[in-house]
Design a protein that fits this description.
Elements: E1 6-7, H1 9-16, H2 20-27, H3 31-38, H4 46-55, H5 60-63, E2 64-65, H6 72-83
Antiparallel strand pairs: 1-2
């Protein structure tokens, strides 16, 4: 069983123009921690996960999941197939 936690931190940072260092500073963690989280090399504590979700003003389940998030290209393919 995979105990990994999947996240959209990198995507959210890109959408909002936030660097790893800016996010880390806002959360009070080292900027490398953000990289570890984004790559799935480190699972956040519940406290950190909630703070990250709060930073992006999103529900925690929008940022983190126990299952992989669908790729954006897969969602686009599904929309094209259903509209055609």
């Amino acid at each position: 069983m995979n105990e990994g936690v999947f996240n959209r931190i990198s995507l959210l940072r890109a959408e909002q123009g936030v660097s790893r260092r800016e996010l880390a500073d806002a959360l009070g963690v080292h900027y490398q921690t953000i990289g570890y989280l984004e790559r799935g090399e480190y699972n956040p504590s519940l406290n950190l996960a909630l703070r990250i979700a709060e930073f992006f003003q999103l529900p925690v389940e929008t940022v983190f999941s126990t299952r992989p998030f669908p790729r954006i290209s897969d969602a686009a393919d599904g929309q094209r197939a259903s509209s055609g």
